[in-house]
Design the sequence.
């Protein structure tokens, strides 16, 4: 009886050991499978492709066309510098601002470099890098229709019409700061300017330096009611969610490039001088 019991126990032990051995794989095989199933970073895709595709829209002086038809501007320089430091070429993909986030999410380009402000609503759809610049909202007004007004409250009434660009933080700022005014939305920045110059609206709300530059360019028609911006917004790169490697590289690029003074230098050139105007005139 004891021999039979020993035989049965031994058999059960061998079967259990065999089953355990079949269910376990070598650590190297497990690691290989995990690596194979891990999502590929867009950073690796860009490096293999040799080109980074940049989504943007035209905002003066962030991005605009020069006399030759090439794109120039602060964001254009930033994109070229980022591509250079990555060791790849840059491909610009002009996109309407109102549809730029959906275009990023569907893979039409790798990144948005276009003066995009960080907002909680946008952050639900995309991930943002560290800010690489800050922008403020201002208001430029018609001398004929609004002369004498000198505060944001002077424009907050039903008799006042304000032009803004659709899908921008300027549009949000106008709705929040001027809830009683009549807000008119336009697809292009040039349309808001034309409405103002044709005296069909009292003012345009936009990111500086556009209001400041317009008040200088059309000094007889336009003026700045307020000296200071009424908002301060962080500007960052926007990428698709779920890619920590790409976001890590971008954040460190911002840290290093800012520490060297390059970003500050180019920001001063494009936003506080008129030296670049000969490129587009």
Sequence:
């Amino acid at each position: 009886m004891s021999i039979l019991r020993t035989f049965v126990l031994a058999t059960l032990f061998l079967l259990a050991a065999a089953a355990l051995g079949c269910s376990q794989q070598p650590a190297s095989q497990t690691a290989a499978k995990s690596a194979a199933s891990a999502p590929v970073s867009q950073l690796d895709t860009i490096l293999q492709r040799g080109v980074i595709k940049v989504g943007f829209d035209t905002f003066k002086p962030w991005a605009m066309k020069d006399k030759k038809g090439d794109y120039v501007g602060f964001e254009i320089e930033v994109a070229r510098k980022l591509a250079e430091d990555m060791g790849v070429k840059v491909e610009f993909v002009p996109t309407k601002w109102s549809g730029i986030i959906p275009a990023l999410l569907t893979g039409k380009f790798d990144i948005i470099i276009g003066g995009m402000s960080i907002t909680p609503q946008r952050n639900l759809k995309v991930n943002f890098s560290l800010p690489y610049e800050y922008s403020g909202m201002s208001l430029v007004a018609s001398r004929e229709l609004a002369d004498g007004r000198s505060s944001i409250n002077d424009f907050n009434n039903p008799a006042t019409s304000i032009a803004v660009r659709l899908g921008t933080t300027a549009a949000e700022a106008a709705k929040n700061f001027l809830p009683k005014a009549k807000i008119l939305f336009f697809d292009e920045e040039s349309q808001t300017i034309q409405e103002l110059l044709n005296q069909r609206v009292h003012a345009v709300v936009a990111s500086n330096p556009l209001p400041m530059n317009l008040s200088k360019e059309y000094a007889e028609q336009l003026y700045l009611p307020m000296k200071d911006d009424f908002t301060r917004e962080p500007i960052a790169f926007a990428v698709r969610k779920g890619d920590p490697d790409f976001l890590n590289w971008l954040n460190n690029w911002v840290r290093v490039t800012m520490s060297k003074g390059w970003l500050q230098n180019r920001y001063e050139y494009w936003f506080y001088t008129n030296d670049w105007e000969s490129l587009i005139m």
